[in-house]
Write a structure and sequence with these properties.
Elements: H1 2-19, E1 25-28, E2 34-39, E3 45-52, H2 66-73, H3 86-92, E4 96-101, E5 106-113, H4 117-129, H5 135-154, H6 161-169, H7 183-188, H8 191-201, E6 207-213, H9 217-228, E7 251-257, E8 264-271, H10 277-290, H11 296-304, E9 308-317, E10 322-330, H12 336-352, H13 357-374, H14 378-392, H15 397-407, H16 410-420, E11 426-433
Parallel strand pairs: 2-6, 7-11
Antiparallel strand pairs: 1-2, 3-5, 3-6, 4-5, 8-10, 8-11, 9-10
Length: about 425
């Protein structure tokens, strides 16, 4: 009977996955801009979004923070949108908008009632074709970014742990920096440098435009050609980032944070690109170790042994490399060394033994659920379509990436743990209150 129930569940999941298929059309404009259209008439909403293949890794070493700065600067106004009017136009037309930056890309989007598709396309074309980049706008956004850094980094507990992990894990690749960058670099940047950054990276051949929602495809294509087709192509962008040497000996480090009272232990490993199957397997391992109160590290360190206030695993997967981080905060007088040993025990188990069939099925169910949820809104679909195209070079991964996760076996999990999560391949960092320095 159990076998029959499991079989029926698998069949139901298969039909559910097929129902979640995202239909889209994609093509290139003559200037190199990639366009992706997704029609969904279930609600009178349309998303217009543009993802640029530029992030913190594209900055000069002495001008960090540029990519994130532009996320702010390009809301200053354009030739046809007055300074301060961008958000007013969006809200007065029943819409909302935002932007975000990572080490690998920058993403802008508007969500409007579907009768305002043309407005969204016009605004994004204005950002690309007619941005106003002047010293007063740079000065204004410089203060905005500084305030953001004070709120999100300088005055937040544990906010610097990733910065300290990255600078120890990466010696050559620009992932060693932070997305928000150094304020001294932005202060030193000239207006000409901001203009040059815009001219190099904010070009149609470095961008993917996604229009998703309640659209007429023929009309959308006409409007896209009208607003974006005339924008000149930019120079091709050559990327040749330095490669990291393998880590062959454990790196020991300490970092200090004035905003914390409880220390933490961090174990970090440099891992492969998000494009690889191994990166997806590491996703599964981190979920197995730390997602929910029934996960391995929580049950052991927090619930059972009561050694830790919090413990977990993070698979930070990025375009060129990944960073896999295991962490724990001690409870009472438990030492960081003892916490590290307890985490090591669980990694060794992963390397030596197959996880149980029950735990494996739970993992598969969790990833099926994530897949369904990621495609449950037109906003999420637009983001995924752009991301898969820009960072993976395969838009259809929005439909097929789940097949990669489905193909992962218990043996794959064991083998990847053996391949990447070894003591001689890692950083062990004590993250300490500054008063202990």
């Amino acid at each position: 009977m159990k076998k029959t129930i499991l079989t029926l569940t698998a069949v139901a999941a298969l039909f559910s996955a097929k129902a979640q298929q995202v239909a889209f059309e994609e093509y290139d404009l003559s200037n190199g801009m990639h366009v992706i259209l997704h029609k969904d008439n279930s609600a009178p909403v349309v998303v217009t979004s543009v993802m640029y293949h530029v992030g913190a890794k594209d900055e000069q070493p002495d001008r960090t923070g540029m990519a994130h700065f532009f996320e702010h600067l390009l809301f200053e106004g354009t030739k046809n949108i007055k300074k301060g009017d961008w958000f007013k136009i969006v809200s007065s037309n029943g819409g909302r908008n935002n932007a975000n930056t990572t080490d690998d890309r920058t993403y802008y989007y508007e969500i409007f009632p579907s009768n305002n598709l043309e407005l969204g396309l016009w605004m994004e074309s204005e950002r690309l074709l007619h941005p106003i980049i002047k010293q007063d706008g740079v000065d204004t956004q410089n203060e905005v970014v500084k305030e953001e850094k004070r709120l999100r980094v300088d005055n937040q507990p544990y906010s610097r742990f990733l910065e300290n992990v990255k600078k120890n894990i990466f010696k050559k690749h620009p992932y060693k920096g932070t997305t928000i960058g150094k304020m001294a670099h932005l202060d030193a940047a000239t207006l000409d440098e901001f203009l040059a950054f815009n001219k190099k990276f904010y070009v149609p051949n470095n961008a993917t435009l996604v229009v998703a929602g309640d659209i007429d495809v023929k009309d959308a294509k006409k409007l896209i050609k009208e607003y974006f087709g005339r924008i000149p192509r930019g120079k091709d962008i050559a990327r040749n980032f330095p490669k990291e040497e393998p880590i062959t000996k454990q790196i020991d480090a300490k970092a200090y944070d004035p905003n914390i009272q409880i220390p933490a232990i961090m174990q970090a490993y440099r891992t492969p690109s998000m494009k690889t199957k191994d990166s997806r397997i590491l996703d599964m391992i981190s979920t197995y170790l730390s997602t929910g109160k029934s996960s391995v590290l929580y049950k052991k360190l927090v619930d059972s042994k009561k050694m830790s206030l919090q413990a977990g695993a993070i698979n930070l997967s990025q375009e060129d490399y990944g960073t896999y981080i295991l962490y724990a905060l001690p409870l009472g007088k438990v030492s960081l060394e003892d916490l590290s040993k307890e985490i090591d025990e669980e990694i060794v188990k992963l390397q030596n033994d197959l996880i149980s069939e029950r735990d494996f099925q739970k993992l598969q169910n969790q990833f099926e659920n994530r897949f369904v949820n990621s495609n449950s809104s037109v906003e999420g679909i637009a983001n995924s379509l752009a991301r898969y195209n820009i960072l993976y070079g395969d838009t259809n991964l929005i439909n097929t990436e789940i097949d990669i996760y489905r193909s992962i076996t218990r043996e794959d999990i064991r083998n990847v743990a053996r391949k990447y999560l070894n003591p001689n391949q890692r950083l062990v960092m004590e993250y300490l209150p500054e008063s202990k320095k």
